[in-house]
Amino acid sequence: MTAVIVEAVRTPVGKRNGGLATVHPADLSAVVLNAVVQRTGIDPSIVEDVVWGCVQQVGDQANDIARNSVLAAGWPESVPGVTVDRQCGSSQQALNFAVASVAAGHYDVVVAGGVESMSRVPMGSAGTFEGSPYSPAFMERYNGIRPNQGIGAEMIAEKWGLSRVELDTFAVRSHERAAAAQDAGLFDAQIVPVTTPDGTVISRDEGIRRGTSLESLGKLKTVFKEDGVIHAGNASQISDGASALLIMSEDVAASHGLTPIARIHTVAVVGDDPVAMLTAPIPATEKVLAKSGLALDDIGVFEVNEAFASVPLAWLKDVGADPAKLNPNGGAIALGHPLGGSGGRILTDMIHHMRVGNLRYGLQTMCEGGGQANATIVEALVTS
């Protein structure tokens, strides 16, 4: 059975303690869930599952936020929900699970996506309780090293010979591309405005810093190593946001008079060194291309999550892709990285970019905690 994507939407990405901070993450999810219904005209009762990514599953995001989001949206109580955690790639993995379930014939209609309110549930909240996620056997295997993403980003910069100037230049480009895309209205069709409890309407991404320069970034102190190269300006922003994609079997979409916009061509997921942690997008890309039968040059756009500037730059060096095709509308350095919602946000951006640019194939990959990465190749079915 062929699984197709019928709709893809996202909220604006809010800055930490910015415009979306007062919105409960279940209510933020409800915004995109209801947007999928409103844009397609489907009855939400036909949705057989909601597969939702979320990383910090405590506090406001505890107790299966997928199910709580369904109920917050006012959908029928018959619609279930399940929450997925593959760290930063949680909503990309949610989509891959949803597509697989439809392709296998288990379901006909699934919504996939994710959410993270990093203002309300700070990064690392799930690890503040007594105990450690790293067992004695784990620590023994890795010589007592407790994995740290920032240190991993520094390790990558050193291994691939990336200077601070190179990283900062990439960060400046991310802001410039995102600002240009925003000014051209390229995000408008994919963004669902959010009305906050006080009635304020948030409709634009908040993280883009216009006028960012090498000079301004050069004044920032490094965070993880005194003599390092990683700082707040060349790393992803702490953010709030949600995203949602409607997946249907091709036959059911046709029966509802809906025109698919894309399909998932090939997926792959890999594990890599959990200490360096952020290198897995490279083997994930190699694996998904090999499985797909496509060549690098067949891909019209690449989205590599900008967790830190060193990640996509190392990816570029190893994979050899055209830099002009990488993150053409900016990435997480400029737009933000609401952990559990980022995979869906990136995929939504990419699908809309492919439609506007008449591109057939796009490839998305994300580094993930524990030294993992998903890679997904999307084929556009509708272009402008």
What does this protein look like?
By secondary structure, this protein is α+β, with helices and mostly antiparallel strands. The protein contains twelve helices and twelve strands. Strands 1, 2, 3, 4, 5, 8, 9, 10, 11 and 12 form a ten-stranded mixed β-sheet that branches. A two-stranded antiparallel sheet has the order 6-7. Strand 6 (194-195) and strand 7 form a beta hairpin. The model has no long low-confidence stretch (mean pLDDT 97). This is Thiolase family protein. Keywords: Acyltransferase, Transferase.
What is the structure about, briefly put?
34% of the residues lie in helices and 19% in strands. The chain is built from 12 helices and 12 strands.
List keywords for this structure.
two-stranded antiparallel sheet, globular, single chain, alpha+beta, ten-stranded mixed beta sheet, 384 residues, 12 helices, 19% strand
The coarse overall form would be globular
Strand percentage lies at: 15-25%
Which residue ranges are poorly predicted, with pLDDT under 50 across at least 5 consecutive positions? none
What is the quaternary state of this protein? single chain
Helix and strand content put the structural class at alpha+beta
